[in-house]
């Protein structure tokens, strides 16, 4: 994945330079490249129209799956749930949070990433994975051929634990109902548990991460793929290659979803 992400960063930088010069479209072998620099806010591109040459298709990840139009009922129910969560005082974390961090992304996402809990950046912004780990997660998502807007991103806890300590069992118990309801509304085809703590609480196991990565799990009938937390990849880049293996497995599964 190292090479993939480095190439991606270089491509984004080159596209940004071209965009500054007023270039709006870039073609490779007659194919318009996905809009990486200024992603569209509404419907994502589903496929390129021209047949891809072997070189071009090797350079690009598989095209993103079609994104269905938002169902107003799901959107309204998620908004109502987010409102309930924003007023939550079930555990002591409400006393120290700046705001709750509900989740972000496509309400009909086929893939839902679940992390541990908001950190300082997320607590300040009210959005999950917006700090350094979040930026790496975004790169992983793009390397998988998707965008942050196309997947859904949430956490086990909706409030930041002080000093970013591990969630306490009582805190997870208080928050679990919210996550369960969130997943039931989004109905993802796959869940990706980011890191040991997310996987432990989601799957109710204390197996080591290596065993969970190799294992086969479901949450409420939804297959769960376990991988390293992006923060772990930042601390130890040797985890990037096995994490990318996990993402390739997920990409293959998503192709048929
Ligand atoms: N780490 C997490 O587990 N979740 C976030 O939202 C940010 C960092």
| CATH T-level topology of the largest domain | Uracil-DNA Glycosylase, subunit E
What is the CATH superfamily label of the largest domain? Uracil-DNA glycosylase-like domain
Q: List the bound ligands.
A: uracil
Going by CATH, the architecture of the largest domain would be 3-Layer(aba) Sandwich
CATH class of the largest domain: Alpha Beta
Principal-axes geometry comes out as globular
Number of helices: 10
Instruction: Classify the beta-strand content into a percent band.
Output: 5-15%
Gyration radius, in Å: 19 Å
Strand neighbour order, sheet with most strands: 3-5-4-6-8-7
Number of strands: 8
Please trace the helix and strand order, writing H or E for each element: HEEHHEEHHEHEHHEEHH
Mean pLDDT: 83
Helix content: 40-55%
Low-confidence stretches: 21-60
Largest sheet: number of strands, sense, barrel closure: 6 strands, mixed
Which structural class should the secondary elements be placed in? alpha/beta
Cα distance spanning the termini: 23 Å
Overview of this protein structure:
By secondary structure, this protein is α/β, with parallel strands linked by helices. It folds into two domains: about 1-55, no CATH class; about 70-255, Uracil-DNA Glycosylase, subunit E (3-Layer(aba) Sandwich), CATH 3.40.470. It has helices spanning about 1-20, 55-60, 70-85, 120-125, 130-145, 170-185, 195-205, 210-215, 230-235, 240-255, and strands at about 25-30, 30, 105, 110-115, 150-155, 190-195, 215-220, 220-225. The strands form two sheets. The protein has a six-stranded mixed β-sheet, sandwiched between helices. The protein has a two-stranded antiparallel sheet with strand order 1-2. The longest helix is centred in the N-terminal third of the chain and has 19 residues, at about 1-20. The chain is globular and about 40 Å long. Uracil (URA) binds near residues 117, 118, 134 and 155.
């Amino acid at each position: 994945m190292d090479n993939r992400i480095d190439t991606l960063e270089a491509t984004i930088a080159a596209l940004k330079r071209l965009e500054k010069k007023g270039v709006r479209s870039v073609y490779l072998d007659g194919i318009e490249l996905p809009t990486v620099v200024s992603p569209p806010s509404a419907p994502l591109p589903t496929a390129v129209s021209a047949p891809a040459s072997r070189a071009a298709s090797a350079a690009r990840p598989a095209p993103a799956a079609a994104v269905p139009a938002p169902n107003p009922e799901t959107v309204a129910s998620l908004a109502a749930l987010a409102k309930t969560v924003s007023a939550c005082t079930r555990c002591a974390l409400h006393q120290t949070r700046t705001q709750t961090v509900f989740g972000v992304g496509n309400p009909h996402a086929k893939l839902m990433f679940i992390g541990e809990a908001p950190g300082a950046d997320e607590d300040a912004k009210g959005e999950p994975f917006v700090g350094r780990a979040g930026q790496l997660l975004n790169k992983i998502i793009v390397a998988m051929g998707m965008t942050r807007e196309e997947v859904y991103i949430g956490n086990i806890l909706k409030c930041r634990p002080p000093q970013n300590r591990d969630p306490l069992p009582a805190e997870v118990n208080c928050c679990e109902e919210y996550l369960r309801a969130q997943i039931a509304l989004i109905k993802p085809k796959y869940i990706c548990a980011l890191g040991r703590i997310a996987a432990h609480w989601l799957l109710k196991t204390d197996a080591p991460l290596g065993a969970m990565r190799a294992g086969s799990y479901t949450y409420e009938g939804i297959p769960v793929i376990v991988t390293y937390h992006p923060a772990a990849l930042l601390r130890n880049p040797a985890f990037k290659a096995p994490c990318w293996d996990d993402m390739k497995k997920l990409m293959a599964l998503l192709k048929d979803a």
